[in-house]
Amino acid sequence: MTQKDRALKIGVVGAGAIGGICAGWIKNAGYDVRVAVRTPEHARQIMEDGIQITGIKGDLTIKMDAVSRVEDMDGDRDMVLLCVKATSMMEAAEKLKERLKPGAVVVSLQNGFCEEALAGVLGREAVIGCVTGWGATLHSPCRLEMTSPGDFIVGNIDNRPDPRLEEIRAVLDCVLPTRISNNIAGDLYSKLIINSCITSVGAVCGLYLGQMLSRQKARLIFLRIMEEAMAVAKAMGIEVEVFAGKLDYYRFLEKKGFFADLKRHLFLRALGFKYRRLKSSSLQSLERGKKTEIDYLTGFITSNALRFNISTPVNTQVLEMVKKIEQGKAGIASENLDKIIL
Question: Looking at the domain 186-339, which fold is it?
Answer without folding.
Answer: N-(1-d-carboxylethyl)-l-norvaline Dehydrogenase; domain 2 (1.10.1040)
